[in-house]
Amino acid sequence: MVISGHMSVLCVVTLGCLALITKGIRIISDPENLSYNQPFKLTCEIGSITDEIKWLYTTTEYFTCSSPYSAGICSIGSSAAAQAVSYDVNTTTGTSTVKTMVTSSSQNVLWTCKHGVDTATYQITIKDRAVVNTFVSSPKLVNEGTNITLTCTLTSTSKLPVNISISRYQYGTEEIIDYVTNSSLKTLSVITVAECRDYNFFCNTSNDYGAMHSKLLNINVGCQVRILENEINKVVNATIGSNATLNLKIIGYPRPTFSWYKQIGETERQLNGYRIEGIDSPALKIINVHQIDEGEYTVRITGAGSDAIIFAFKLNVLSGIASQNEDAEATRSDDLGVGDLGVGALIGIGVAVGIVASLIVFGVAMLIIRIRRPPMYDTATNYDRTTQKKEADDYQLRNKRNSKRPVQEDYEQPVDHQEVYEAVD
């Protein structure tokens, strides 16, 4: 029952019910049937929005908004809870909304919407959800191969019909033992044979009024310690710098003790906690693997009333040095400068530069001599008046040759020594 201080109206609150209507303001919930850990939206239907709007969680002000109700203008509370809620004011539809999640702490909490002096409240109520009350075994202490009875009972407020299942959980796999759907009963009992792998059992229940609820039951089934050899990776590969896990899969109760060793030469050395996790567990984790960590490892399992069991692993360490060295060599070659070269390489480069320079100087000298040297003519031809026209032609040709000056294209261009000579390490 919810009562408002202004124009009060009496309302009996049920799941998803409107809590209070005051001067035309009301709050509705979407979805109507609320459940834990599921999102929901409360809509405050105002009509014509002309005044300040506020949302309160119990008595704490989470949100305030005034005209013009635009983005970046309204204020949100500084607490993490207030910041986790999504708010909106829509002047077109005349509504304001909040979107959030239902949690166990929000059960029976009031949300309040205010528009000026008008107020409406909504109470979060989840009372019809199917919830497991008790989950027990009989007998409580069992050995492998004996019958065990598992009984799951729901709370009295769980609304019928309900779905109930009982399952066992072994090494990451859940196996359903028995289940019922749309049941008119709030209890389920099953008889099963206890297995050595058994440790965790679950009772799961759900209905149309909330999310599934589960309850865990731990049972220690007495049995001889055994190694699940077919499910174990005996050879483990790891790269330098990574982590490697030697994982022994084993069943048995009471729980055995574990001691880990490494074969070093002719000696078997017991391991300690240096770069090691799980030294006393069935899973040994080696942190930041080094090349020296490669080798054979053994674990010694000792259980009450049984002889020690020894199991061996092989750890291969893949260095990845080849690819790393190639990358490093490429980087080193790209970054190689004159200061990084050896004496022999510097001498070779100096000789090469000298030879190229000498060739260039020689070529230039020959061109200059050729240009400056006068052309040789036959004397009879030069002084024979009958060939004057020919002499004129020769002089014209000579003048053409003399006027031609050597340009850059006429020289053989020097080649960059870095392309000609291969650097020698």
UniProtKB/TrEMBL annotation:
UniProt entry keywords in alphabetical sequence: Membrane, Signal, Transmembrane, Transmembrane helix
Highest taxon in the source lineage: Eukaryota
Domain Immunoglobulin: 137-222, 233-318
Bias (Basic and acidic residues) ranges: 386-397, 414-425
Any Pfam family matching the protein: I-set
Transmembrane domains' residue ranges: 341-369
Keyword Transmembrane helix in annotation: yes
Chain positions covered by the region annotation Disordered: 379-425
Signal peptide: 1-24
Tagged with keyword Signal: yes
Gene3D superfamilies associated with the record: Immunoglobulins
Name assigned to this protein: Immunoglobulin domain-containing protein
